[in-house]
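Annex B. Sample input.
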Amino acid sequence: AALQVLLSDGVGPTFNSMTVDSDTSTSDTLMLFATGAAAEDGQARIERADDPRVAAFRAALNEVLKDLSLQVVRDGEGATKMLEITVTGAESDAAAKRIALSIANSPLVKTAAAGEDANWGRIVMAVGKSGEMADRDRLAIWFGDVRVAVNGERDPDYSEQAASDVMKAQDIPVKVDIGLGTGSATVWTCDLTKEYVAINGDYRS
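Annex B, continued. Sample output.
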């Protein structure tokens, strides 16, 4: 029971915060096993997830879960880039995650990343279609450290060259501040390339 609690807690910000194309295979599975080997060495059985002995294991488990989930993103069909999408200023953490996933699952956002285009208009579109509260005139958007939009408009100090340099990287941080509350969330996704279409278009079961 304790192991199940640790795994359930750990998948929220890791495996359940990443997406390749929004689809879930019928065979997608995550398992965590306890072998009982420690008991053979005389260690007392751990029955509860809040047992003080669990703290270090929990931290290590969460690191492994994050590493494995990011490997899934990097290994997406035809993927050449990974996007880390952080949403802040939403009405709640749950709202922030829904907005972040709306951005991460947008084909237009993902193809823009493949084309190395800092197209913040597509980010605004994805925020709007999320169904969560948002005010265009409060939005701020960054690609890496480059703020491309503020108060719903193009940043007056925006540098297209600086934004283009960010988009050329293999790992692209994207941040969106909604400007309404304190909710925040981070999700990961990959770009959508011609190779993705070729792999899935040519595939036969």
